[in-house]
Amino acid sequence: MNNNETHLEDVRGKEHKQTADFIKSFFQMALAAESQECQSYMAADGEVITPTRLHQGSVDSSLHFQQSIEKVMREKNLLFEHVLVWVDDLLIYARTIDEFLETIDLIYSQLEKYGLFLGMDKTCLYTKTAKWCGRVLTKDGVSYDSSKIQALIDMPVPTTAGALQQFLCAAGWMRSSLVDFARMCKPLQERLDKELAGTRRTKRVAGNISIELTPDEIVSFQHVKNLLQNAATLALPDPAGTI
């Protein structure tokens, strides 16, 4: 899978954007005949079901779908120049409105060529401020979706290891915008590691472990919330710039 943090640099200075989502994405991909048997599964009544389409839940379904879409976009040199792909989510971008319209025409032609369909209910045809994969992108920088940040700020003090794990994972996903995040969350991470020591560290296991945070851990919890409230907008690097 691509590193979005790296490839978002390609959006710098390109203010004309579109976001799109494939409808019933995985089911649009046909399975090769030699791959169908190994994807078969048995139903409750003993019937063996052999799929002819890519189905969700296989170990590498997401990777296969993304690589297939990237191959379609590479054919016209669109990938990383005018489009980013994250599984079934597309971010399309261009520097000028004319370039944007030409790009859209190329992309839609490629999708039509390979029989791929976008879901219009999840497609934003044109915007200068795009929300994509939890991020907000303008031509000058990247920030995180304020609704996702607010959801974390509104979280009560965790009373289970599962709730603490969820908070740390979600905040950690935004860590590139949180100054000094690792130090601020250290007491919480140490507590989580202690509670999950010797377990499988799954969401289900963690959700069944009750905890009561110490005063110092509650302070750490509030510090992380303060970082979220002041999350930085990241500038997109300029290869020609100087430090």
TrEMBL record:
Transmembrane residue ranges: none
Alphabetical list of Pfam families matching this protein: RVT_1 (PF00078)
Signal peptide: none
SUPFAM superfamilies: DNA/RNA polymerases
Domain of life: Eukaryota
Protein name as it appears in the record: Reverse transcriptase domain-containing protein
PROSITE patterns xref list: RT_POL
PANTHER family (UniProt xref): POL PROTEIN, RIBONUCLEASE H
Every Reverse transcriptase domain range: 1-137
InterPro entries: DNA/RNA_pol_sf, Rev_trsase/Diguanyl_cyclase, RT_dom, Viral_Replic_Matur_Polypro
